[in-house]
Specification:
This protein has 10 helices and 11 strands. Helices cover 38% and strands 20% of the residues. With 272 residues, it is of the alpha+beta class. The relative contact order is 0.15. β5 and β6 form a beta hairpin. The protein has a 6-stranded antiparallel beta sheet. It has a 3-stranded antiparallel beta sheet with strand order 8-3-11, with no helix packed on it. The protein has a two-stranded antiparallel ribbon with strand order 5-6.
Length: 272
């Protein structure tokens, strides 16, 4: 597997964390449980005309999207076919960044994966054709960058309260949601709706997913773990709360996660 990333230039950098691509003809026929990453992504398959959807409980195929799709922000895991990652390019939005390219509230895409054609019509197919014509991976990133610039909507109305909260939630240790709302001065219900429309999750669930994702990145490359120390360092009250999040987001225990994790911290390779 060859994995590349590219940091877009301004003004895209305000909305997009990075572009990425993966290539590898030797990928085994296996399914991967994709764990919540706390962000929305565009994924474009350059090899296949459609991408299968799988039931996350039975792992059975239950439909498909076109070769270009938008993955809303997830608070539950989903299943992908590892073989479908042979030639893929995509991008990860910053929290709330999708608003610059899609008119619908981000909350409507919570735990959903939809065809990009449904949102961009024929322009999604046009983008894929341009990417297929590009002579190299580096050129594909530039093609994607130019296309996104042309696809940007009118600058979204700045929601200063949400921007303030996202900055606070990005700090370590992360302040409590209630303390941030108190500083903003909005009611919990009103702010929660603003945040969900922009980011896709409620403030508390967003912070919970990001805290758990930090655990996964700290586990990267480690085989022996001080679970109690790790739990406290990431803001968990105790180890049992960390274990609960593993069951909620990964559907397994921390020990099983260590055995099945893939090359990416948010990938679990499922047994055949």
């Amino acid at each position: 597997m060859i994995y590349h990333t590219y940091i877009p230039r301004s003004p895209l950098l305000q909305f997009v964390s990075f572009f990425w691509s993966s290539e590898g003809d030797d990928l085994p026929q296996a399914q991967v449980r994709l764990l919540p990453i706390g962000a929305m992504e565009i994924v474009i398959n350059l090899r296949q005309g459609a991408i299968a959807l799988y039931d996350r409980h039975s792992c059975a195929e239950c439909g498909s999207t076109s070769s270009s799709r938008l993955s809303g922000i997830h608070s539950e895991n989903c299943i992908i076919d590892r073989h479908s990652q042979v030639a893929v390019i995509g991008l990860r939005f910053k929290p709330g960044g999708s608003q610059a390219f899609f008119s619908l509230p981000a909350g409507e895409l919570h735990n959903r994966i939809v065809s990009l054609d449904d949102l961009w019509n024929c322009r999604a197919a046009e983008l894929r054709e341009r990417l297929l014509e590009a002579p190299s991976g580096e050129t594909r990133f530039l093609v994607l960058e130019r296309f996104l610039l042309s696809q940007m909507l009118e600058p979204p109305k700045q929601q200063l309260a949400v921007n303030f909260a996202l900055r606070k939630f990005g700090q370590f240790p992360t302040p409590t949601v209630n303390s941030v709302i108190d500083q903003i001065g909005f009611s919990t219900r009103h702010f929660g709706q603003l945040f969900r429309d922009r980011v896709g999750l409620t403030p508390k669930l967003f912070c919970r997913v990001r805290r758990w994702r930090q655990v996964l990145y700290l586990l990267d490359g480690k085989d022996r773990v001080d679970w109690i120390g790790l739990a406290h360092s990431c803001g968990y009250f105790d180890q049992s709360h960390l274990i609960h999040d593993f069951h909620t987001f990964a559907g397994c225990t921390p020990t099983v996660y260590l055995k099945q994790r893939g090359l990416h911290p948010c990938h679990l390779v499922l047994p055949n």
